[in-house]
Amino acid sequence: MSLLTGAALQTAGLDAATAEAFVTAYEALCTGFGADVLGLWRHVAKELLGPAQPFEVHRVVHSIVFADWPASLGPAPIWVPGPRELESSNVARMIRALEVADYAALHAFSVAEPERYWRYVLDKLQLAPVLAGVRVLMAEDGPESALWLVGMRANLAEAALARSESNRVAVVFQAEGGGLERRTLAELEADSERVARGLSGLGLTEGDAIAIAMPMTYESVAIYLGIVRLGGIVVSIADSFAAGEIALRLRIGEAKLVFTQDVIARSGKALPLYERVQAATVGTAVRAIVLPASGTLALPLDTRDVSWDAFLAGGAGQPRSAAEYCPRSAEDVTNILFSSGTTGEPKAIPWTMHAPLKAAADAFAHHDLKRGDVVCWPTNLGWMMGPWLIYAALLNDATIALYEGSPLGRDFGRFVEDARVTMLGVVPSLVKTWKASACMDGLDWSRIRCFSSTGEASTPHEMHWLSARGGYKPVIEYCGGTEIGGAYITGTVIQPQAPSAFSTPALGCAFVLIDDDGNECDQGELALIPPLFGSSNRLLNRDHHESYYADMPRGPKGEVLRRHGDQVERLGGSYRALGRVDDTMNLGGIKTSSAELERICNRVGGVLESAAIAVPPVGGGPSLLVVYVVMADGNTCELPELQLELQRALARELNPLFKVHELVLTAQLPRTASNKVLRRVLRGEYRAQKR
Questions:
Q1: Which residue from 17, 271, 311, 473 has the least number of CB within 10 angstroms?
Q2: How many CB atoms lie within 10 A of CB 673?
Q3: What is the chain's alpha carbon radius of gyration, rounded to the nearest angstrom?
Q4: Is residue 482 part of a domain?
């Protein structure tokens, strides 16, 4: 272990007296822990380091403590579990209840004994009453055709709302510039009933598809649960999409109705939403139910559309029986979500009953969610983390925390403090903004027990900062996909957590890393080993087998492998995500495809063809969008002007959150013999040029 000096701490930002006092306290701790570097770090982080200190101090001390950390063990941890986590966490109790030796044995048990493992977890989610006579897994026709929870009939809204403590707070929320508001479980249950009655009043019933294209608000949660309560199918559409993308998803999902909002209030601005929905529904039979962002509607409605108040009034005369919980089978569709593939049309992924249960189980096991916790995760119902948040919180008797505004500034951080959030989920680009702006300095996040990060690759530096911001709490990296209802790789609160690294495959999940020849390796494409609880077994607009199984090699033990498309590296005892191996990319936490982006870019005047790639920045972190462009014969351009035109086109026709990092002009695009663009070659060339 290297020597910590006062000079090093002064360089990091401490004054001389504080630096010397720190060194004295540090040396006293070193005497007590000897060679136990993990125990030493846990106490140093808890007793000597605080959010008010310059972050460079944290980095210096961490590098000193772990100066001799063996590279064979992977990156050094920033968080180490203590007695509470090792004894009282959900995973620790699971190890004792299932009578396995340790976490490694628990994971092996969860894969080898799915019947026993999932019955235990679902019992903890209070679903035991509907499991009688249910067969957890039926896979006689092979893992690709596996069925889960065979014979189960239930309603997920009832499972989430009919809990033992109806007077506990189910949702705490705050609009920008407003104060905290709270709704109990009983109030949320009543509001979901009002939605179900309103839908019945419009003639909608079990199996009908109903879209939601609005921000994540208390009302949107009640709407979501009201649709599920009725036995309907939620069609999830992100509120950031352009009219054409909204129309595409309404069509694919066969939605009969869409809930939306007049405008989106963000940072003092009113961004149009209903106008885009109006444009998306022109010439269709889809009607809109329009909620006001605040007070009264900001603009008049189309004659066929209905205000929120009128919708609720229309359902008030419906009998209670019209809004009874409609039982559904485990294979019935409850939600349609969209995830981009490598063609222009997004994949429509139906969530059956076990996908939301996978989300809640991941929250229970990997995020240690418990009764009384308050969960905040800035997201949207258009992405899987929106439904994930609803089910993860309510099925674990926790409270959903919603900030109805931009999460980029201090007001959001103050909401986290005032709402007494105990679990905070992030997209890494959020953390980058918070750290760069210092907007969270001085806020008390000490009640947070756990952070979680998903949606895109993170950087170790920023995840270390986030952990320190909460007084050294674990940052559970969480990576999976819409197709599997949660994560395939993540962390736990009983394992040391290194920044931007995963400590374990998700419980109930097994995978293998393979190279281009299908051989097992330490860095390569991650292939899942089915059956996997929560994963899709069909697509609405694509061949499921072709998308996930065709042309996949067998696993090291002859297993059937399921394609997922992520590239992962094994680092000693942990893992790190390296991005996508195909032409799907992740920009700001939103999955899209090269084809979707290129479809827009190729319409810009003067452009003959384009190729969109995502590249990681130097040092890691969220992917950056780089667009290669071939100009039509005789056309010239100024790069800044063309880049601005492309940016405007993407914002207008696809998503304003996508930013063109760099535009590259080229004479031609590299292609295969069959004329497919070799984007992999472009990624390699670009990285080589930037080294």
A1: 17
A2: 5
A3: 25
A4: no
Helix crossing, 308-316 with 185-201: angle to 10°?
Answer: 80
CA distance 478 to 388: 12
- Distance, in Å, from the CA atom of 80 to the CA atom of 39, rounded to the nearest integer, reads 8
Query: Do the Cβ atoms of 665 and 627 come closer than 8 Å?
Result: no
d(CA 599, CA 436): 34
**pLDDT given at position 342:** 45
**Residue 12, in any domain of the structure:** yes
Nearest Cα neighbor of 26 from 12, 11, 10, 46 is 46
pTM: 0.88
**Which H or E element spans position 55?**
helix 55-65
Kindly give the pairing relationship between strand 423-426 and strand 181-184: unpaired
* CA gap 283, 275 in Å, rounded: 15
pLDDT band at 435 (very low <50, low <70, confident <90, very high): very high
Range of the domain at 595: 584-690
CA dihedral 235, 241, 246, 248 (to 10 degrees): -100
Residue 531 preceded by cis peptide, ω within 30:
yes
Question: Does 444 map to a domain?
Answer: no
**What's the structural domain count of the chain?**
2
Report the pLDDT value the prediction gives residue 583, as an integer from 0 to 100.
67
Count CB atoms within 10 A of the CB of residue 148. 27
Residue 514 in this model has a pLDDT that exceeds 60? yes
| Boundary-marking domain end, from 36, 51, 69 | 69
Q: How far is Cα 236 from Cα 601, in angstroms, rounded to an integer?
A: 26
- For residue 110, is it left (φ>0), alpha (ψ between -120 and 50) or beta? alpha
List beta partners, residue 663: 627
Confidence band for 182, pLDDT divided at 50, 70 and 90: very high
- Label residue 344 exposed, middle or buried (CB < 10 Å: 0-12, 13-18, 19+): middle
Average pLDDT over residues 257-265: 96
7-21 tens-digit pLDDT: 999 999 999 999 999
Instruction: Please state, for a pLDDT cut of 90, what percent of the chain lies above it.
Output: 78
Q: Provide the pLDDT for residue 503.
A: 97
State the average pLDDT for the chain.
93
pLDDT at residue 319 is higher than 70: yes
Q: How many CB atoms lie within 10 A of CB 538?
A: 14
At residue 658, does pLDDT exceed 70? yes
- Please check whether residue 36 lies inside any domain of the structure: yes
Rounded distance, CA 602 to CA 583, Å? Answer: 17
Other C-beta atoms closer than 10 Å to the C-beta of 84 total 11
Contact present, 373 and 384 (Cβ < 8 Å):
no
Q: Which residue, 16, 50, 69, sits at the end of a domain?
A: 69
